[in-house]
Design brief:
The chain has about 375 residues and is α/β, with parallel strands linked by helices. It contains 10 helices and 12 strands. A 7-stranded mixed β-sheet has the order 2-8-7-6-5-3-4, sandwiched between helices. Strands 9-10-12 form a 3-stranded antiparallel β-sheet. Helix 2 runs parallel beside helix 7, helix 3 runs parallel beside helix 4 and helix 8 packs across helix 10.
Amino acid sequence: MAVYLDAAAGAPLHPVAREALLAALEDGWADPDRIYGAGRRARLLLDAAREVVAGAIGARPDEVSFAANGTQALHAAVLGTLAGNPRAPRFVHSAVEHSAVLHAAAAHVAGGGTVTAVGVDSLARVDVEAFVAAASRPGVAAAALQAANHEVGTTQPVRQVAAQIPVPLVVDATQTVGRADVPSGWAVLAADARMWGGPDVGVIAVRTGTRWRSPYPADEREAGRIPGVPNLPAIVSAAAALRAVSAERDALAVRHRALIERIRAAVPASVPDVEVLGDPDGRLPHIATFSCLYVDGEALLTALDRRGFAVSSGSSCTASTLEPSHVLVAMGALTSGNVRISLHRDSADADVDAFLAALPEVVAGVRAELGASGL
């Protein structure tokens, strides 16, 4: 069986989530808006799940709605905040936001709006002064700043920025919820249950008083934010997983941080011409990222896969993208041979040991195939 080290793209389903999903399929299949018995039972399950998620992110239950997935939640978070402030045409975001945020920004531009992308430093942390200045200009409808970067793990100064800008702040907390404290100051927040070991469920939370309007056709479901009957069994499962991971979060973070520090120290010591990326201290506990010179990212991932390691890359060229990661480019980082390691609750010391033992040989082999072994 492959060693799965790509939890930042989706953690394996938590055992508690699996049990809750099966139970909810038996008892939570009805429409929660119906007044007959099965509908009332479904409503109780939905309300309980909403309370769990609200407590985890520091929101009121009526501020929380469920989406089909994290991408839909991010799209709705951005586009709904912009729609709620239609007289202001400009959207401000950091240069290292998730692609879902950038795609929503592109849709805003296609509809006649404008966008300002604010740069980051070499650790992927946004320039606070520049961000605040950009978001404080006339004509800005909203700003977006992730809680932590999905590729290199660097946390962002959300509280500091939120305290200084006059417009709603959209926060992508997809990598943070279930892993670390959610920073305060957000007006609209998005999360993704797959990142904490739940099934495909997105979360969008809108603070009371925030000017937000659904970008979708009118629908009475989920406070009018996300149309359609919610996937109740998946939502119940996601909430159960979040409750479970919240209880074990601190202990898991200590273990993951120690493993990640080992990776960050061992990789450059054993593989020449490597750049370790992201803030060594102000970071999520489960992500380590590095780039290898003279190595093609896709070839490296393929070679690691053959050795039984499932990892990801921000710079591998595939049929769908011929460009390096926008995050790495914004950081001014080495974009070739990029590897992201991200741990989940079942990641073991032995998994990391095996990866660190195999990596030097794998990199050397890829460099030899590309004729770069002597460089």
